[in-house]
Specification:
Number of domains: 1
Largest sheet: none
Oligomer: single chain
Strand content: under 5%
Radius of gyration: 15 Å
Order of helices and strands: HHHHH
Distance between the termini: 11 Å
Number of strands: 0
Structural class: mainly alpha
Helix content: over 70%
Length: about 130
């Protein structure tokens, strides 16, 4: 498979949609993995965060064939920033003892998503 924006955007859209479904309907999976007890309040926040993942998934999926442009770059840059902030927050939560080491799996995934989008968008090709 070629490392094109279209392929990277499609894969990340599917991954983010999967994460959205899990956070929406079974947030306790990630929370328990990270050593955080599920509460209704955390479930409420998880479901709201899932909506953001679903929205970004839709943006990437429908923009996957977009030609290089300032709009495509803005979309990608926004999500790269999101990924890197999430990864930094994950590292901080682990370092301060608020989450178990398993959160580093999420950190790795967030960095991988951000880097893949950065590299794919840098090549300035749609497909």
């Amino acid at each position: 498979m070629k490392f094109t924006f279209k392929n990277v955007a499609t894969i990340n859209a599917l991954l983010l949609f999967s994460l959205a479904v899990i956070w929406m309907f079974a947030p306790n999976i990630f929370l328990s993995m990270w050593g955080i007890d599920y509460t209704y309040d955390l479930g409420l926040l998880s479901r709201r965060g899932a909506a953001a993942y679903a929205g970004v998934s839709a943006m990437l999926f429908f923009a996957r064939s977009a030609q290089p442009s300032p709009i495509r770059s803005a979309l990608v840059t926004g999500f790269i920033v999101t990924c890197f902030i999430l990864s930094i927050l994950g590292i901080i939560e682990f370092a301060t003892g608020h989450a178990r080491a398993e959160i580093l799996i999420s950190v790795f995934i967030e960095i991988a998503i951000g880097m893949s989008l950065w590299f794919a968008n840098k090549h300035k090709t749609a497909g």
